[in-house]
Amino acid sequence: MLYQEHFAGGTLFQRSLFSTKYFSFTDHKVLIREKSLAGEKSVLVPFEEIGRDRLVALRRKPEFLVVAALVFGGSLLGLYDYLAGSGGSTLEGVLEGIVGAVVLALAFFLTQQRTLILVNDDQKGVVLFLPLKGEAPATEEFIRVLLKKRDLYLRQQYGHLSHLLDYDLQLNRLTFLYKAHVISQAEFTARRDKLDALFPQKTDMPSGFSFSLN
User: Fold this and answer.
1) Is the pTM of this model over 0.85?
2) What is d(CA 123, CA 45) in angstroms, rounded to the nearest whole number?
3) Which of 168, 164, 182 is nearest to 211 (CA)?
4) Transmembrane stretches, by residue range (predicted)?
């Protein structure tokens, strides 16, 4: 199989043809570990950088294409030697050219991956594998749990209102929660009114002034 996935114990396991990924939760971040022929790497993605917007794209691993291109280049040299007459009467050069073309074609198609990116306004987020065709129920369940944890954390971290904190700081936090789709516009308006009530001197604005979320 070109794609496998499994979600259990709070960890998502994904395997494509050349790569394996593990996603797990740690405090208010997502830990991503990836193993491939190029080695192993890990990254921590804060909940603040994870959005609800989805981008689906086709990607390829560049390191595999580079290797395939080198093989193809060597095969072309063998073919050139044959055509130039230095290869004798054998078909070795032709076969090398055919093998190189096949390797390059296989690398081009087999390294193709369909990826899902949960991005925010800064185009940052979590990159997940997807099967080239069909659904990914384990990945969808992981995303559901992830967004639930994310929303709960962001509410607790940035949703508290107090007269002891700076007014503009709290207003910016509410705006962040709204743009991150953690709170609705109605909830944003209600919380902003509550914040204004904590700072009556701040709400004495000139006539015609209005606050915009854009």
Assistant:
1) no
2) 13
3) 168
4) 64-83, 89-110
